[in-house]
Amino acid sequence: MSKPNVIILSGYGLNCEDETAHAFNVAGGVSEIVHVNDVVAQPKKLSRVQILAVPGGFSYGDDTGSGKAYANKLKNHLTEQLLAFVQKDTLTIGICNGFQILTQTGLLPGALTYNDAPRYLTRWVDLTVATPNKKLVPPESPWLAGITELSLPIAHGEGKYYADEKTLATLKRAGQIAYRYIKGETATLQSLPANPNGSLLDIAGITAYNGRVFGTMPHPERAVYFTQLPHWTLQKEILQRANQPLPKFADGLQIFKNAIHYFK
């Protein structure tokens, strides 16, 4: 089977398209970075790909709120095409600003608002896909197949996930909570709290459309290689002393590999 095709949106302040495209390519896909204006001009581009990615960045300088202006661009020109795309057997991911954009378009429920700590945060976080109790249904998303825990970096000022009680109950019942912040190795090494922004239920990512649409505040494309880990030199020393081989890749790559494998 041919390699799955991926469109990475760009333009108006999105700035993580290169590393997102690289992650998909390393995972075995064929990525194309496309300015949103080109998709507006040629909306049939979406019908020719299997995966759509809205990467991180600071679209429109975060004016009027993170993701709002870019989401309006999509809603004003591509609503019909986006709905048709996500309703097919395709995959969509929104990373950080892309997650904010997907919530603003209505493709994902809830909203991302200002961190409890009123500032921009950049650090590593630990995540669990497992559920803390029987009241939460485990997620069934192609993006997260075979993943239980992972560590990824964050970089945001408006990353607190918020939704009303009814929406939160639906997310829990339907297994739409993709993963949650936990106190793991990297948070412990940095002496930082597990939840970096005050997200309700410690939510770091959610899904919709049977798990095929995935929004994540942490950046998996920034955790593709072992040497990107914040403690890779320590890990290298530990592995070498134990006469163990050094890994080439890190946790984030598996998310992209899962997406590519879905179409094989």
How would you portray this structure in words?
- The protein is α/β, with parallel strands linked by helices and 264 residues long.
- The chain has one domain (5-261): Rossmann fold, CATH 3.40.50.880.
- It has eight helices and eleven strands.
- The strands form two sheets. Strands 2-1-3-4-11-10-9-6-7 form a nine-stranded mixed beta sheet. The chain has a two-stranded antiparallel ribbon with strand order 5-8.
- Helix 1 crosses helix 8 (253-261) and helix 3 (68-87) packs across helix 4.
- The longest helix is centred in the N-terminal third of the chain and has 20 residues, at 68-87.
- The protein is globular.
Structural class: alpha/beta
CATH top level assignment: Alpha Beta
Elements, N to C (H/E): EHEHEHEHEEEEHEHEEHH
Please state the overall shape, judged from the principal axes of the Cα atoms.
globular
CA distance, first residue to last residue: 7 Å
User: In this structure, how is the largest beta sheet organized?
Assistant: 9 strands, mixed
**Strand line-up of the largest beta sheet:** 2-1-3-4-11-10-9-6-7
Overall pLDDT metric: 96
Spans where pLDDT lies below 50 across 5 or more residues:
none
Share of β-strand residues: 15-25%
CATH topology: Rossmann fold
Shape-level CATH architecture: 3-Layer(aba) Sandwich
Query: Radius of gyration over alpha carbons?
Result: 18 Å
CATH homologous superfamily title: Class I glutamine amidotransferase (GATase) domain
> What is the number of beta strands?
11
Share of residues in helices: 25-40%
Whole-number tally of structural domains? 1
By DSSP (H or I, 4+ residues per run), the number of helices equals 8
